[in-house]
Amino acid sequence: MNTASLKSFATSARTALIREVSARMTAVLAQGSPERVEQPRVVAELEGAISASGGNEKGKEHVADRVAYTWFNRIIALRFMDANGYTGVGIVSPAADQVGQPEVLAAAKRGHVDGDVVKGANAATVAGLLNGTRQPRSGVDAQAEAYSLLLSAYCRYWNRAMPFMFERKEDFTELLIPANILAEDSVLSRAVTVLTEEVCQDVEVIGWLYQFYISERKDEVFAGFKKNKRAGADEIPAATQLFTPHWIVKYLVENSVGRLWMLNHPESRLVDQMDYYIAPAGEESNFLKITKPEELTVIDPACGSGHMLTYAFDLLYAIYEEEGYTPSQIPGLILTNNLYGTEIDPRAGALAAFALTMRAGAKRKLFLRNPVEPSICVLEPISFSADELSHLVHEDGDLRAEEAFWNQFAEADTVGALIQPDPNLTDRLAHHLATLGDEGDILRADALGLAQQVLRQAEILLPGYSVVIANPPIPRYEEDVLWPV
């Protein structure tokens, strides 16, 4: 894969999107803006996010960076889906063998809008903008505003199948779509040019784009190291997200996942498709016994954008197929039974889940109609106050051990999968949590929800997988850069 054009596109896209999102933010936050009049709740949500991110210019920069990445993520995901025929209509791409505007906008100009996707008032607004009966916002082209509504509607539609990629956490994201999104040199237009159908045949492209998108941020972080700045939770992803070359991925997966299957099934023809597999020199007897494909569980505890897991998916598919499973069932079986990943970077975690979903969709075109969500867990920092802990612990239990259990993920966004939950305590507290109620207390209900998340994170980190495979993120830090010992 020629990555030079991908790098040029991703790095320039980040700069452009941050600039354009910031410009939209300034317009939205202006006194008397149409958005303040028509969508005061959403504008208040935006102001709250800015305040929570440090306020003033620092907060605005942080939110602009986050929203810019969200739209980059969505645009490249939708382009990949368009190119592979998953969307039905080109959401960011022109119709097949054509150039110009996205197919969905061209169809809307002819009066064709999918009512299952674009609902009620939005459909009427799109029609009004395109037929001239409704005026666009000041300084915004009518077609660009109509397309922004269409794009947002399709993101909400795909949220049902892929909530990890098309999240609905912040409605103000839709207010900040770049005003020039339909321009000839826009990020959307360049995405269609760079991400050709040939390039989009391999979901590996998504991982490369992410590495290149954050490359400037990585340079900033490493420049900070030279000034003796320590790496915190915000810096670690940029410093450690490196896309593992495909030959290394194949070598590692074939000599772990493939090797374990071959040891248990020496007659398997899986060996024929493993270019980097090294057969054992002699007879081995001390290995985990695997009788059927569902038993071969694999975790990548630092999964990044999912490169290891997507190739493991390919090998597992071949294993299931060789064992006589129905092809239409195999993708769901793999995602349900075999593959797991943890990650501290929410962006990378979303890409890993997307990559696995696209792998499944490539094997079964109807998969996205009833998808199985990949088991990718982004490890979130969670801690509890003394009052919250008093409700979570057993009255007659080991108070210190239980409090430590509930707070073990307090620095999860820094230490990630290095956390080692106690299996017995995890099981016991899971049963205990099931007996607790919120008693009508909103704060207690919130604490119980966080406790459930702690259990989910603890359970995925418990030992017991057939294969653990990873290219661990080990940057060249000086001693004591992360935290004092």
Automatic annotation (TrEMBL):
It catalyses: a 2'-deoxyadenosine in DNA + S-adenosyl-L-methionine = an N(6)-methyl-2'-deoxyadenosine in DNA + S-adenosyl-L-homocysteine + H(+). The keyword Transferase applies. Gene3D superfamilies: Vaccinia Virus protein VP39. GO terms for molecular function: site-specific DNA-methyltransferase (adenine-specific) activity. Its EC number is 2.1.1.72. PANTHER family: DNA METHYLTRANSFERASE A, DNA METHYLTRANSFERASE YEEA-RELATED. It comes from Brevibacterium aurantiacum. GO terms for biological process: methylation. InterPro entries: BREX_1_PglX, N4_N6_ade-DNA_methylase, SAM-dependent_MTases_sf. Keywords: Methyltransferase, Transferase. The keyword 4Fe-4S does not apply. It is an enzyme of class 2 (transferase). NCBIfam families: BREX_1_MTaseX (NF033452). This is site-specific DNA-methyltransferase (adenine-specific).
